[in-house]
Amino acid sequence: MLSYWEQASLLRYDIIIIGSGIVGLNTAINLKEQYPGKEIVIFERGILPTGASTRNAGFACFGSVSELVDDLRTEPREALYSLFKRRKNGIDLLRKRLGDTAIGFRQDGSHELLQEHETDVLDAIDDLNVLLKDLDQNIIFSEAHDHIAAAGLSPAHFRYCIAANTEGSIDTGRMMKALMQLALSKGVIIKTGVQVTRFEEQADGVRVDAEDPLRGSVINFNCEKLVICTNAFTGHFFPDMDILPGRGQVLITRPVEGLRLKGIYHFDKGYYYFRELDGRVLLGGGRNLDFEGERTMQMGANNTIVEHLIYQLKHDILPGNHFEIDLQWSGIMAFGSSSKTPLLYKHSDRISGAFRLGGMGVALGSQLAIDLSRLVSE
Ligand SMILES: Cc1cc2nc3c(=O)[nH]c(=O)nc-3n(C[C@H](O)[C@H](O)[C@H](O)COP(=O)(O)OP(=O)(O)OC[C@H]3O[C@@H](n4cnc5c(N)ncnc54)[C@H](O)[C@@H]3O)c2cc1C
After folding, report:
1. Widest pairwise Cα distance in the chain
2. Model's pTM, two decimal places?
């Protein structure tokens, strides 16, 4: 049974946001800046955010050439241009909001590595530079094959290399901490360990139910507006929505002596990515080895993929170097069955949300949160 005080003061908010990932936090900050007098609370089911935002690779990237070429097979050129622009804007917004030092931003550029059979990707460079030239005065993509030997990568495996000067990396942990601190400093309330189980629109607002394991009961909160930022976990509320969870595996080595990598790297249409981080190598990806196995909302290791990642470290990324794996983890992304465009969703005047950020939510999150805040304010 709730106390008189709890019922009188602790159950009603102006705006409830579900999910404290990049989108939930940015949306809360935007709405609090717009409506300083409103009580805005974020409900997060985990003690820490438990989706993708604290478990990613920290690439501030917009898309590699092979990935963009692949996307052109299914997406019209205008859609690709618009998605690239939104990713670029999103990174600019994140940097402006939090500052480069707070998020550990480094603009060391990126390299895409290609195998012998991928020469068609090189042929697409000029076309993509023309398509994207309005977004950047510099040439975005250029051939940089010498980098393979310079970085100590296997020239037998990687034959060609494309550099992109505008991409960079962030320190994901520091970025999320800075976002949380900014939200708290503006007066946003963040409640962790609150798993929302259902919601229901009512005449005077929205009832939001959350489990309370300590009391062994469900608590009914109320709000004027509900904002859903649950990305891969949105199917719990909207089972018919085109959102497929996709788990991503990541591992990081201990510091490697004589490491010559610089910035961020992608290969195989973006399915694999690695970077230098504090003298270590962070490597992730390989979902294409087991799409079905990784279509899950449960964190956990996929041994086939992890073993393959270690094989790649040994033979292709750090050939001849001694290395040890320090940590391995996973995170859950959200994909559409055929589109890479995120979903901005208005369920009703009181309920809206934004989800399905794919593998580039660090880049897309801030921009999407602005669009979502506008939708909530309408
Ligand atoms: C392994 C990996 C590597 C990645 N690498 C990159 C990268 O290098 N660059 C890049 O741009 N993007 C990357 N991404 C993608 C990026 O991290 C995501 O697109 C982005 O973080 C999504 O943010 P979000 O706020 O929408 O979702 P999330 O961060 O998943 O947040 C959703 C939150 O909602 C909470 N939640 C869910 N259901 C409930 C409920 N019922 N009640 C309460 N809370 C709930 C979850 O616990 C979670 O904290 C990567 C993702 C992964 C998994």
Report:
1. 71
2. 0.96
